[in-house]
UniProtKB/TrEMBL annotation:
Domain of life of the native organism: Bacteria
Protein name, as recorded: prolyl oligopeptidase
Entry keyword Hydrolase: yes
A molecular function (GO) term: serine-type endopeptidase activity
Signal keyword on record: yes
Lineage of producing organism: Bacteria, Pseudomonadati, Bacteroidota, Cytophagia, Cytophagales
Protein's job: Cleaves peptide bonds on the C-terminal side of prolyl residues within peptides that are up to approximately 30 amino acids long. Has an absolute requirement for an X-Pro bond in the trans configuration immediately preceding the Pro-Y scissible bond.
EC number of the protein: 3.4.21.26
Length: 705
């Protein structure tokens, strides 16, 4: 099933004096001079300097020159690492295999994504029947010379005759929506602009979508996004003719997301004030509703409509159930009854297909799938290939089978077909990756945090690992926004494991691994718990001799970048390397850019006195101190990141370079034509090659052929 791993490509060797060589190179680094201003703000009686405020203008000529100068230093440093290109070559080799998504059915057609291996973007295909000949529907690789235009969504009309699809350019969250005739596979003249965080919810001859007003010129990637609106677009018409369905002129900082049930009877309006808590309104077309009616008042709990059963709606929620449950509600009367009650494990999500309800539970961060009939009776558990993560089990009411994908750290995403009537699973499509899974193992361990909380962590490494404290280790975490870090395969992780590396994935509080209680313990005034969990994880790895502070790297992205920045301020002695990626580094001003206001529900805000005190105590930029021996640090960001704007990383890098006077490098790597995540495969490979090269070089590890 899997190709054998190429042996002898890389060997791990310790080089006497390489650490000294690395430090010597670092001590000769000359960082660009960053202009300081006397900008001072006052928060609840506390004066806070912000001397690099000018870097927030990421479109100014001065900022552009600063970016160019910083990249010259960073790439000059990286180019000295003798095995940097070797690592990049191995990454290209390991990811160069066909990767498929699970198919989705619409009438006689099956739609799926495929990447041949090194394609910058996955291609959308369809075929008639499971044995049909695939044909290309949309190939994003042909839409931009540098391969940075992405297909971000594809929504078919109920009859499958038309599709609304969205494209984003250079990694931006902004999208444009187009309409395709599925008989001819030709796009219609329809073009919808200034769209963000939405899909297309079809009803009849058009669809609902959300958008913002056009931002000011030059402010497209940084200005605060306010007053989202919901429109209905009728196929074949101009965007200017779209009907405004919903707006709220009194609450500028809310998200609105429309969805329709499969039978298109119910229009559901999901409203949120951030990343946590929601309110649900609805219209019943069968009842002739002209106005929205409120189904659930917000914003204390999270609600999500799964489907309708005739007049009733199935709702996934945590009202009175921190581990979530599914309830049935009669919209007319508001009568609510349990459909699938709460359990000790977190109910992670629920889907309907083929007249069944499929629910996915997390038991110590691994999936368990159960099938219920539509009376709420448990029928069976689906037997999975092992302990890992499952996605899929969605479809339409007349489906006789569904697909799901199973993955784990050493188990590449593999697609299975589940027959609903017979309850049997069969392998549908397995990838062939250039490595041997049986050479590696994953172990789940538990450690106690500062307050005694038991926290899980997954460790993946080559079999035969010696616990002698010499293993290069990459510690990865997130810890926020109700997001779980479940086991998942990444081909780009394999080259690090091949070097004898350990990949450690922490399940920190702030996530949803153990339900809403776990999430709440890492929010707002309790955010320090997340950093304490991370510190305890590092201490565990060192105490158990998996690694040592000289061989331990801490990495995280977005909210995980905040984690890295906060933790190395508090315990720099635990780490040799730090990789904060696209991090939220200025906790006092994050809510002033694009959609940063939506994170207040998780972080709190500097506008609130108590919350200011809590976030100011850990805000990465504001807690960098002189006299601390910081780890070798490489910050990564991108010029089109309009979610966590690059100003966070710019100001953090400038502050670190100003205040840290030690021998370790403090670099920032700024990608172009990319966003919050890599905008194409090539950029992803290049970024990971630089992260691995920087990490191993500063650990004193050399990779040899």
């Amino acid at each position: 099933m899997y190709k054998s791993m190429l042996t002898g490509l890389f060997l791990l060797a310790e080089i006497a004096g390489s650490m000294a060589q690395s430090n010597s190179v670092s001590s000769m680094l000359k960082y660009p001079q960053t202009r300081k201003t006397d900008q001072i703000d006052e928060y609840h009686g506390t004066k806070v300097a912000d001397p690099y405020r000018w870097l927030e203008d990421d479109r100014s000529a001065e900022t552009g020159a600063w970016v160019k100068a910083q990249n010259a230093v960073t790439f000059g440093y990286l180019e000295q690492i003798p095995y940097r290109k070797q690592i990049e070559k191995r990454l290209e080799q390991i990811i160069n295999y066909p990767r498929y998504s699970a198919p989705g059915r619409k009438n006689d057609w099956f739609y799926f994504y495929k990447n041949d291996g090194l394609q910058n973007q996955s291609v959308l295909y369809r075929q008639k029947g499971l044995n049909g000949v695939p044909e290309v529907v949309i190939d994003p690789n042909k839409l931009a010379a540098d391969g940075t235009t992405r297909l971000t969504s594809f929504d078919l009309s109920k009859d499958g005759r038309y599709a609304a699809y969205a494209l984003s350019k250079a990694g931006s969250d902004w999208q444009e929506i187009f309409v395709m005739d599925m008989q001819t596979l030709k796009s219609l003249p329809d073009k919808l602009e200034w769209v963000k965080f939405t899909g297309a919810a079809w009803q009849g001859d058009g669809f609902y979508y959300s958008r913002y007003d056009k931002p000011g010129a030059g402010q497209e990637l940084s200005s605060k996004n306010e007053f989202m609106k919901v429109y209905f677009h009728r196929r074949g018409t101009a965007q200017s003719a779209d009907e405004l369905i919903y707006e709220d002129k009194t609450h500028p900082l809310r998200y609105f997301f429309a969805q329709t049930t499969e039978d298109e009877r119910f229009l559901i309006l999901n409203i949120s004030e951030g990343t946590d808590g929601s309110e649900i309104w609805y219209k019943d077309s069968q009842a002739g509703d002209k106005q929205f009616k409120r189904l659930f008042e917000g914003f204390k709990y999270n609600y999500s409509v799964v489907d309708n059963l005739g007049d009733q709606l199935l709702v996934y929620h945590n009202n009175g159930a921190p581990n979530y449950k599914v309830s049935k509600i009669d919209p007319k009367t508001g009568a609510l009854s349990d459909f699938v009650g709460e359990k000790p494990e977190k109910l992670d999500h629920a889907n309907t297909a083929g007249g069944k309800l499929f629910v996915n539970y997390l038991k110590d961060v691994t999936s368990r799938i159960y099938v219920y009939d539509l009376s709420g009776k448990l029928e069976n558990e689906v037997q999975l290939p092992g302990l890992g993560t499952v996605s899929g089990f969605g479809g339409e009411k007349d489906d006789s089978f569904v697909f799901y994908t199973f993955t784990s750290f050493t188990f590449p995403p593999t697609i299975y077909r589940y027959e609903i009537a017979t309850k049997k699973t069969a392998l549908f499509r397995a990838p062939e990756v250039d490595f041997k899974p049986t050479d590696y193992e994953t172990k789940q361990v538990f450690f106690n945090s500062k307050d005694g909380t038991r926290v899980p962590m997954f460790l993946t490494y080559r079999k035969g690992l010696k616990l002698d404290g010499t293993n290069p280790t990459m510690l990865y975490g997130y810890g926020g926004f109700n997001i779980s870090l479940t086991p998942a395969f990444s081909a780009l992780l394999i080259p690090f494991l091949e070097q004898g590396g350990i990949y450690a994935s922490m399940n920190l509080r702030g996530g949803s691994e153990y339900g809403e209680t776990w999430h709440e313990q890492g929010m707002k005034l309790k955010k320090q718990n997340v950093f304490d969990d991370c510190i305890a994880a590092a201490e565990y790895l060192i105490a158990q001799k998996y690694t040592s502070p000289q061989k331990l790297a801490l990495r995280g992205g977005s909210n995980g970048g905040l984690l890295v920045g906060a933790v190395i301020n508090q315990r720099p002695d635990l780490f040799r390397v730090a990789i904060p990626q696209v991090g939220v580094m200025d906790m006092l001003r994050f809510h002033k850019f694009t959609v940063g206001w939506g994170w207040v529900s998780d972080y709190g805000s500097s506008d609130n006195a108590d919350e200011f005190k809590a976030i100011y105590a850990y805000s990465p930029i504001h807690n960098i101190k002189t006299g601390i021996k910081y780890p070798a640090t490489m910050i990564t960001t991108a010029d089109h990141d309009d979610r966590v704007v690059p100003a966070h990383s710019f100001k953090y890098a400038a502050t670190l370079q100003e205040l840290y006077k030690g021998p370790n490098p403090a670099l920032i790597r700024i990608e172009t034509n990319s966003g919050h995540g890599a905008s194409n495969t090539k950029k992803n490979i290049e970024t990971m090659a630089d992260i691995y090269a920087f990490t191993l070089w500063n650990m004193g590890v050399k990779v040899l052929k």
